[in-house]
Each structure stands twice: as C-alpha cells, then as structure tokens.
Amino acid sequence: MDIRPIHTEADYKAALKDIASLMESDPDLGTPEGDRLDILATLVQAYEAKHLPIAPPDPVEAIKFRMEQSGMSVKDLEPIIGKSNRVYEILNRKRPLTLAMIRRLHISLGIPADVLIAETVAG
C-alpha cells in the first residue's frame, strides 16, 4: 500500500482518480482495498479543507435558497421580516437584516444564525 501525503494539485487529482477506481470495486471495510479507500478519502478531505475551503453563503443568498427550497414567496416572509416592501429591500440588498429579523429567520426557516450575521455581498 503505497500512500503518500497530498502536497500538490497533481497528487490531489491522482488521489481522486484512485478513489474513483476503488469505489467502482466497492471494497469491504477491513480489506486492504477498503483500508486504502478510507485512507485516501481522509487525505483528500484534509487537502480540500486546507486548500479548497468552502466559504459560508451570503445571507441574502441563503434566504433566497431557503425560499426556493421551500416554495416560499415574498408574502410568506412577511411574518418574519415585515411588509412586502421591507422583504424586497432585504432581498435586493437595500436594507440590512436586523437582529430581530435574524432571530426570526433562524427560528422560522432554520437558517444558521452565523450565516445570517455575515456581511452581505453587494449585488
């Protein structure tokens, strides 16, 4: 079992290729192939965490995503944010979320509070 740390993009791509090949054979846990898959997946995960971090979503994009996911309209957000003009101001980035809105969005829609308190990217 010749497994080395992933230091470069080439190492990363080679590890992904090995993982894909191993996954096709669907090795059992505890077998040499299963152990190799487990180790490679752990190395890839560590490399991705260090070199390819995923940025948290923009608060407005998180709200729009949840609306789309749940089939919600602007009208559905009125009890949470306020009158429809206020909802549009938030969704169009003309007005920032207030603490009370963040709390209600977190409780009502299950959007993580840390996502909602992040800086909104100007649109």
From TrEMBL:
Superkingdom per UniProt: Bacteria
InterPro entries: Antitox_HigA (IPR039060), Lambda_DNA-bd_dom_sf (IPR010982)
Organism: Pseudaquabacterium inlustre
UniProt name for this protein: Transcriptional regulator
